[in-house]
Amino acid sequence: MGDFQAFSGKQVLITGGVGFIGSNLVRRLVALGAQVTVVDSLIPLYGGNLFNIDDIRERITLNITDVRDPFAMAYLVRGKDYLFNLAGQTSHLDSMTDPQTDLDINAAAQLSILEACRQHNPGVKIVFASTRQLYGKPEYLPVDEVHPIRPVDVNGINKLAGEWYHLLYNNVYGIRACALRLTNTYGPGMRVKDARQTFLGIWIRNVIEGKPILVFGDGKQLRDFNYVDDAVEALLLAALNPRADGQVYNLGSREVVSLKHLAQMLAELHPGARFDIVPFPPERKAIDIGDYYSDYNKIEAELGWLPKVGLREGLVASLAYYSKHQQHYWDAT
Amino acid sequence: MGDFQAFSGKQVLITGGVGFIGSNLVRRLVALGAQVTVVDSLIPLYGGNLFNIDDIRERITLNITDVRDPFAMAYLVRGKDYLFNLAGQTSHLDSMTDPQTDLDINAAAQLSILEACRQHNPGVKIVFASTRQLYGKPEYLPVDEVHPIRPVDVNGINKLAGEWYHLLYNNVYGIRACALRLTNTYGPGMRVKDARQTFLGIWIRNVIEGKPILVFGDGKQLRDFNYVDDAVEALLLAALNPRADGQVYNLGSREVVSLKHLAQMLAELHPGARFDIVPFPPERKAIDIGDYYSDYNKIEAELGWLPKVGLREGLVASLAYYSKHQQHYWDAT
Predict the structure, then answer these.
(1) Complex prediction ipTM
(2) Exposed end of chain B (fewer CB within 10 Å): N or C?
């Protein structure tokens, strides 16, 4: 797909760059010759894990701070050609038990970052990592970008506000910005300690630890998944293409699978793995969205993105990674 | 319309109750025999004006505080049967120059109020004053509740988040809440010092002061208007009807007029009044939405609301009110 040589020598800022998708993006940009500055808060409950950037630590500028710090961000956005804005609170459940923190990070800090750009670097191009969560429970499938917006949790509402601030600053102030609405993304570097980032993390951990995967409900809920390399490719394409300015794009996958089928795939790929179908915990049932998968024709047509890594291939790579590096991702029990 | 005797003896909390719509609602509820507690911050740039409640001051409990104060709100929500949640930052322009304050009031404080209700008074019924601003530039007219949401300013994004928190707390926690998406509301008690609350305020002031009304653009932009008594009626109906729980409703009017026509009406009603059609100031053009008027069939069908006060009648009442009480609403120049 992309000819990404344009990133060579460019100044790039990545918020959430020690996290899952961020660190994979950092690695790719370093390989492309970009001058990368990474911002991460390293809040223990979030996605940042220094092992994610261990191999490229000496080739980047690492700045530990919180995107909620407006003075730090005002300094850090200066002089950058690209800003990949990936820092966020991702846990749906945490957004319900501590809604104000979710708001501070996913909405208030985004506004503050955009104000920093408006004041100190209006020429920057911003790519914001948004989420399919803001569609809520689908009215139709696959879900395209004109599907009604109806978040079912505080996280969805705040992420939406964060996304719209970006589009607004594009439209009103001409600060080039676009948003990718990511679906379930997985792969090396994701948080697997718990389900705060993705349920697939804890599934993979359980498989490796020999514990059963817990499939909630009847296991028939449909989902789509992107391997992290494909998500990174989309972020890079969106950064370089002026057609993306002011736009939102769904990511997605041709492979739509039920959670039960996904559990079966994992069980086949890892000897001894097993899964149990169990009732929904009530706090999860309250914010469950049923079946979901995306229509990603828009990004395919406009930016030329297509997911390339098949689900089986991605799961094999993920299982291999966490089997090898588990000591860096959870305390052995 | 409504039989509002059900409010007699009830405990009612009204945020923004010294402001325009709030104070009219307070007066109506006092007349209905409710025990009314009024919360207002009296921030000078907002809608609160103590003269608005001068005639009923001794019949209410007045608590001056800011809805951003979570401890005050935790105390104030206790024991209330109804909460009319009207406090807000309403200026579109101010939301662009100071986006964080708009976020704090229109989004963060709303979440904090809902958390206070969840923890201290989950049985309360909440009616939230939302706005047609969140539809942005209409894709079709009249705009109904399924019209796409596309705010064109920070205020619209934050008001939307505030609205959705209410619906979410209804759906997830069973705290009964609904939202009315108000269109242009006018009448006695509105802020007329400037255009922070409604452009019609400054128009009426200019008419009374013998200054020309400034009509931006070509004057052909269509709008709908509700006299404040009709908006109050809708708030009361929404509070009493369980069918409203979890719903949003547009308000609107049968009378759709161009801004030029509205200026002509005012000029006819007040001897010596005149208007000028002038180009848009650039900061207003950037967030202008073109024509707008609502489809309000949903609230008519479900709650039995209809606007009753005609535009001419409402303008006459407004001109009379501000001619008589101008010293309480602006410093004579």
Answers:
(1) 0.87
(2) C
